[in-house]
Design a protein that fits this description.
3-stranded antiparallel β-sheet, 41% helix, AGP_Transferase, 17% strand, 8 helices, Aminoglycoside 3'-phosphotransferase, Chain: A, domain 2, 5-stranded antiparallel β-sheet, Kinase-like_dom_sf, Aminoglycoside_PTrfase, 10 strands, Phosphotransferase family protein, 259 residues, alpha+beta
Amino acid sequence: MDEVEVVVAPSQRATLRVGDVFLKVDGDPVHADLEVRAMALAPIPTPAVLWREPPVLAIAAVPGKALGVLGAPSDASPAAWAAAGAAIRRLHDAPLPPWQGPRLDDVAADLAGECAWLLANGVLPAEVVRRNQEIAAGALRPWRPAFIHGDLQITHVFVDGDEVTGVIDWSEAAPGDAMYDLATLTLGHEERLDDLLAGYGGADRDVIRAWWSLRSLVASRWLIEHGFDPDAPGCEFDVLRSRMQEDGGAPPDSPDRRV
């Protein structure tokens, strides 16, 4: 029997790997329902659904390797990044999935609440939080809905050479802001944005930069509370500090966390 590997296991759900099969265990059947529906609608390569027996969804591993990981340089070629951009463009141009996506008011409320928590707990210097909150406001504008993946982390896009072989983890797919997907994929890999856009085409770079700040601010508490480290090199806190450097000043050191 193949060894069972725990891929990720936050409190709400877990993903296990057994050989070439991934088992996604989730007590909320809505997540699996949406993931299966989204993969069926997406016009790009997705994992094959092998079987489903709630609360477990079994999907096949996709060939190739992830485009990269957060916190380390991507060794994928510029052509592979461009291929990822072209695939994302096909997704964004596809008909919208028939369910509700994120609402602008809810995104704005999440940003305000998470920034208040970061400041109250001294997780980051106040000037880093406040400056990034100002930058993040650039994403808070009406957007034309596109079919977005919704959690397009760099580890969710697989390539073989210069070809996209699969995009995984579709439970957040919905109508939403196309720039959010582009920002999520290049978070911590800002230097690969030009390569991505070579395949994607035109995009609003200022809004992408705003989403880098917004996603990093909003994700930080969840990451800390679920055992992940947003302060690891190249991760969310480095993304936030880099915005301070772009303003022409060296960012202050982070204080010890009181969380």
